[in-house]
Structure formats: structure tokens, C-alpha cells
Write a structure and sequence with these properties.
With 499 residues, the chain is of the alpha/beta class. It contains 16 helices and 22 strands. The radius of gyration is 25 Å and the shape is globular.
Length: 499
């Protein structure tokens, strides 16, 4: 078993802290490798490499940086098989789901090829007598990102692609649970033409996170993960004077109106609720049928679909619907929440407890669960379960359903299924949630729009990817210019105003 490394200044570098974390195979429960956990000294070394590389990189014109992004896209496509297999091996996703993880990151890289257009400033001719004014977007310097286990390809690319396109250098601290793909991405970026040191990968845990947050030469930090950690990173990063954007937890509702196509709604709930074993921040975990008749019919359609789901390792074939969760601890937490749901009075309609898979008895597999008659005071409703558990909260009216999603502390994503345009339009306008799907269960915007929730799902004022990314990774400089031929003799002692 060979230990993994960091990726510093274009080279695989062994850890020096003496601390390691096990990287598991979630399907078997076995340790497949170890990853080094960086200390503050190793973080500082990464920062110094990144700082040295950033000066020349920022002086490289945006078109040349865009060409490197184009080459990187090509390399992602040609290495998709290797990336997908490595991702599935460490995370447990099915191969098609892992390929989608890479693809949604690749689409953001494609958007970043437009950097020359996106970095253009503004110009005002003759703002005053003989005076011109113009603004320009300039890179921040050394930037950093702390990314989660559930999307080890997509979310790192959501961060480092726009950061690099803007002329910054970037230090990536990926999840220590599935670090191989981020290391592979860094090597591919250098193969595409990025200079050594522009993209560093430093593996680690909280010690590395704190070193990033408090390092004086890191200008910005991005984070995706749970809300308590998002709030911590946002608070500490801002204290250190950094630009920070943090994306936290979610509890996404799907309202099902009486006029909805219930077969379509049931299929949407199956894919969005149980895909990737529910380990998505945009997973639908709460079904909200309006009216008991709608609820009864929806439950009737969901039961056979859930009971027919195929759970297994990614190696079992392309017909597997979802694989294991990431760790034994995650499995135990899900099982505890299921127990709490039963104890608090919810009806367990599909019972996935005790799920076993021959030959994979030590794997972190969790069977699919479906609850009915869930209420707002139950833990399974309030908590982000991050597992294959779907809760059904029945409501009497559309207004009740709207208020349910609006009043939850999380505001990441929400969906409504209806055939009525007026209802859909009213819902989209009024619901207090950042991303809305109308007959779309997982409303993840494409790369040229922005991704981000509201309320306790986000800390910061700019979203991920799209135009907001280019705002986050640059600072605006405004120049007021007047040439000597237009300067009158004598000093001016009053503030200039337009006459």
C-alpha cells in the first residue's frame, strides 16, 4: 500500500508532519491507502510556491490563460475513465454518477475559457475636462479552497478554474476522505500548460484548515461543507481580513401539487432523493404533497420504485442505482436519525434497516428509507441527513407547502411539480430559497449562471461559478487620468466636482 502525497510546485511531495488519515474503500470497509495531513509549515511552503508563481501568471494575458483552460478541458475528456474510476473507488459513487461529477466541473472550466471577455473593465471618455476614467479587474494573489468529499472533482474545479483564469494562484485543501482525484486534476492542469506552483494541493484536516485561515498571504478562501464548519470558516477568515465565501448545509423540499404528473414526480423524487446515496447538497430529502389524496397516491407510486432500487458497489455494473455512504460514522449517523424518526412518531413506509450485501458485509451500505407523516418538530425533518432517506410532510394547501420551504433554516434548493403556470410563477417569486426548480428536481444552474443558496446554506455575498466567480476572484481598480497638456497652472484646493 503506497501512501498518497501533496502536490507542491509541480511535484508529488511526501508529507512531513508524520500524521496520516486512512482512505477507505466504502464498499468493502477496507483501508486502501493513506493520505498525509499537512501542518502549518507545509501550508506555508505551499503559499510561498504559490506566491512566487502568481506574479508571472497574472502577467500572462487572459487569452493565453484561456488557451490553457482549453487544453485542460481536452485532457479531462481524454482522462475521464481514469478520473471516474478513481473517484468511484474512494467515494463509492456509481461510475455514471462519478462521470457526471467530472462533467459538471468541466463545464465550469469551459465557461472560464471566456476569461478575456469576463475580465474586461469599463471606460468613460471625457469624464471631466481632459479627464478619462477606466476600471480594470485584477487578481487577488494567492487564493485557497477547502472542498468536501461528496464532489471531489466538481467542486475543486468550481473554485480553482475561475481563480486561475483570473490570474490568481490557488491552494486546494480537498477532503482527506477521497483525495486522489484532486491530485490528478493538479497534474492535468500542469500538463495543460499551467506553470509550476500555480495550483497546489495540500491534504489535511483542521490543522491545515486553520493554517489556511490565518495565513497572512492568502487573500481569499472558498469552502463547501456543513453549516457549522461553514460558519466557523467564514468567521475566522473574515477576522483575518480575507475574502470568504462558504456554502453549508441544506434541506431541500419538493412540493407536489394535486395537478402534477405523479409518475413524473415519483421518478424525480427517486433520482434526486436516493442518487449518490443522498450525499448531495442538492438532494431532495423532503417530499411535500399538497392534500391527503395527492400524498396517498404519491406514496403508492414511490413504494415499488424504492423497493426496486439496486444498491451495490460501482464494480457491480451500470445498473446499480447507488453505492455506499462515505464512512462507517456516516452510516451510523443515518441509522440513528432513522431510529429517531420512528421514536418521534413518523411512519416508516419503506424500511431499509439491516440492509446487507453478500461479500460486502463490512461496507458502508445503507438501504433506502421512506417516511410518511413527518412533522416539522422531528429531527429527521430539521437535520440534513445526507443519506438515502426521504421524508414526506403532508400539507393541506399550497400556502402551507410554500411556508414550509420558506421557513426552514436552510435555503439551498427547492422544487415544485405542477402543470399550472400561475402556481409555478408565484412559487418561484415568493419562496425564500436560492435555487428553484419547476418540474426539475435538482435545480443546479449551468456554469454560466451562479450556484448558491440563501439563509444558513451560505455565508458571504457572492455565489459560485458564473459571473460571480470572476467578481469573487478579482478586485476592481479604478484609474482617473489627465495628461499634462490639459493641466492648468496653479494648485487646486477644492475637491473636483462636475459643473
Amino acid at each position: 500500500m503506497k501512501d498518497l502525497t501533496h502536490y507542491l510546485n509541480g511535484e508529488q511531495v511526501d508529507g512531513t508532519s508524520g500524521r496520516f488519515a486512512d482512505v477507505m474503500n466504502p464498499a468493502t470497509g477496507e483501508v486502501q491507502t493513506r493520505v498525509p495531513l499537512a501542518n502549518s509549515t507545509e501550508i506555508d511552503a505551499a503559499v510561498q510556491y504559490a506566491k512566487a508563481a502568481q506574479t508571472d501568471w497574472s502577467a500572462t494575458n487572459p487569452q493565453r490563460r484561456a488557451r490553457i483552460m482549453m487544453k485542460f478541458v481536452s485532457l479531462l475528456q481524454s482522462n475521464l475513465g481514469d478520473l471516474t474510476e478513481a473517484l468511484s473507488r474512494e467515494h463509492g459513487k456509481t461510475l455514471p454518477d462519478a462521470a457526471g461529477d467530472v462533467q459538471r466541473g468541466l463545464e465550469v472550466v469551459e465557461y472560464c475559457i471566456g476569461a478575456p471577455q469576463l475580465l474586461k473593465g469599463e471606460f468613460t471618455d471625457s469624464a471631466g475636462p481632459g479627464i478619462d476614467m477606466y476600471s480594470m479587474r485584477q487578481p487577488l494573489g494567492v487564493t485557497a479552497g477547502i472542498t468536501p468529499f461528496n464532489f471531489p472533482a466538481m467542486i475543486p474545479m468550481w473554485m480553482f478554474a475561475p481563480a486561475l483564469a483570473c490570474g490568481n494562484s490557488f491552494i486546494l485543501k480537498p477532503s482527506e476522505r477521497d483525495p486522489s482525484v484532486p491530485l490528478m486534476l493538479a497534474e492535468l492542469m500542469e500538463e495543460a500548460g499551467a506553470p509550476k506552483g500555480v495550483l497546489q494541493v495540500v491534504n489535511g484536516d483542521k490543522e491545515a484548515v486553520d493554517a489556511i485561515l490565518h495565513h497572512p498571504e492568502i487573500e481569499s478562501v472558498g469552502f463547501v461543507g456543513s453549516t457549522p464548519i461553514a460558519e466557523y470558516i467564514y468567521t475566522e477568515g473574515c477576522k483575518s481580513g480575507k475574502r470568504v465565501q462558504c456554502f453549508g448545509g441544506a434541506k431541500n423540499h419538493m412540493i407536489v401539487m394535486p395537478d402534477a404528473d405523479l409518475d413524473q414526480a415519483a421518478d424525480a423524487l427517486i433520482g434526486s432523493g436516493y442518487g449518490a446515496a443522498g450525499e448531495r447538497c442538492m438532494a431532495i430529502s423532503v417530499a411535500v404533497p399538497v392534500g391527503d389524496k395527492t400524498a396517498d397516491q404519491l406514496i403508492e407510486k414511490l413504494i415499488p420504485r424504492i423497493e426496486n432500487l439496486k444498491v451495490g458497489p460501482y464494480t457491480a455494473g451500470s445498473d446499480i442505482d447507488f453505492g455506499p455512504v462515505i464512512t462507517r460514522m456516516a452510516k451510523e449517523k443515518i441509522e440513528q436519525l432513522v431510529t429517531s424518526g420512528i421514536n418521534q412518531g413518523a411512519q416508516l413506509v419503506v424500511d431499509g434497516r439491516g440492509f446487507t450485501l453478500q461479500g460486502y458485509d463490512n461496507g458502508f451500505f445503507v438501504g433506502p428509507h421512506l417516511f410518511d407523516h413527518v412533522t416539522e418538530d422531528m429531527d429527521i425533518y430539521k437535520t440534513e441527513i445526507f443519506g438515502p432517506v426521504l421524508s414526506t410532510v403532508r400539507t393541506k394547501t399550497y400556502e402551507d407547502a410554500l411556508n414550509l420551504a420558506t421557513n426552514h433554516e436552510y435555503g439551498n434548493g427547492v422544487a415544485i411539480f405542477t402543470r399550472d403556470g400561475d402556481t409555478a410563477r408565484d412559487f418561484a417569486n415568493r419562496v425564500n430559497v436560492g435555487m428553484v426548480g419547476i418540474n426539475v428536481p435538482i435545480p443546479v444552474p449551468l456554469a454560466y449562471h451562479t450556484f448558491g443558496g440563501w439563509k444558513k446554506s451560505v455565508f458571504g455575498d457572492l455565489n459560485q461559478h458564473g459571473p460571480d466567480a470572476f467578481k469573487f476572484y478579482t478586485k476592481t481598480k479604478t484609474v482617473t487620468s489627465r495628461w499634462p497638456s490639459g493641466i492648468k497652472e496653479g494648485g487646486e484646493f477644492t475637491i473636483p466636482v462636475m459643473e
